[in-house]
Fold this protein.
Amino acid sequence: MLDKIREDINARLAKQPDSRCATGDEVSICWLIGEIDRLQHQLSTNKKIAETNRADAVKKAMLDTACAACHEFNQPLQAIMSHLEMLNLCIKDNNFEGLTRRVDILIKQTARAGDITYKMMNLKRYKTKKHDTGGAEMLDIEESYIPKEGR
């Protein structure tokens, strides 16, 4: 990039007349100072744009993660809710066989929610996938976490 800037300055200097500016310096020196100011302003603007892009990327990552968390937690919560309702019916009907089956399902769904929490606490990379409905991007929790040994 500096080579391109240097070439640009040399090309513009070649076009400048050898007259003097108000300070008595050659016009090419005055022009060069103006070019330096212009380039400093351009670099400052580019830095602000880069900072904005980085902030936007961080916001997108946060939204993708929140979407994934809601989606992943909603699945076991829906299962827990429906089985609690069924469990309530089994209790009312004195159906103890159905009661045991429902409790087993509730234990599995609670463990599933715990696994999601564990994975989110061990996120090590950022990979996304499309939401099941084909809509929003969301964090792919399975691809983004690295399991610890023994788990």
